[in-house]
Amino acid sequence: MYTGREISRRSLVTGFDSSQSGRSRRLSTLSTFLMKPTFKDSLAWEQAQVLMQPAMLRVVDNIRKEIESSPWKGTYKEVTAPIPGYHLCLTRSQYQIEVDVWELCYQVCFKEYEPIQHLFSQENEAAYPVEIDTRLIDDLGEVDWQLLESKAQQSVRKVFNTLP
Fold this sequence. Notes:
It contains three helices and eight strands, in the order E-E-E-H-E-E-E-H-E-E-H. It is an alpha+beta fold. It has one domain (about 10-160). The protein has a six-stranded antiparallel β-sheet with strand order 4-5-6-1-2-7. Helix 1 (about 40-70) crosses helix 2 (about 100-110), helix 1 packs across helix 3 and helix 2 (about 100-110) packs across helix 3 (about 145-160). The longest helix has 27 residues, at about 40-70. The radius of gyration is 16 Å and the shape is globular. The N and C termini lie far apart (about 40 Å). The model is unreliable at about 1-35 and about 115-125 (pLDDT under 50).
């Protein structure tokens, strides 16, 4: 397993109900442990480097499309720990939901990316072995934009379909 380069991320999907006395009451927290996706070799790492920026672009554009047709309002919040990234902050009525955007990108780029999820968990620095979805890269090393778009749509829709 290639561990010379690892990506550390923590995914948070947190819901709040602020309807009681103006204070936020936590409805649910679904978080994955601080997972470090690890790659089997340097080729897999290089493939991830090719895919992550295009995946981010498609995920963000699909988030925009979903927000346009939903009752939710969305903003982005920059986070610096454990690794710099962005959280999508969705609000509607008394609900506030926060989603780690990198986790959505991971679902696009990696095969069957579903790290073990725990309610109210603490961070864990366990490594999470991942496998690149090589269908996203052709023989010339170019990105298959249609498949990437399809996987980005699926990942983003899954989030919006599970909102309260």
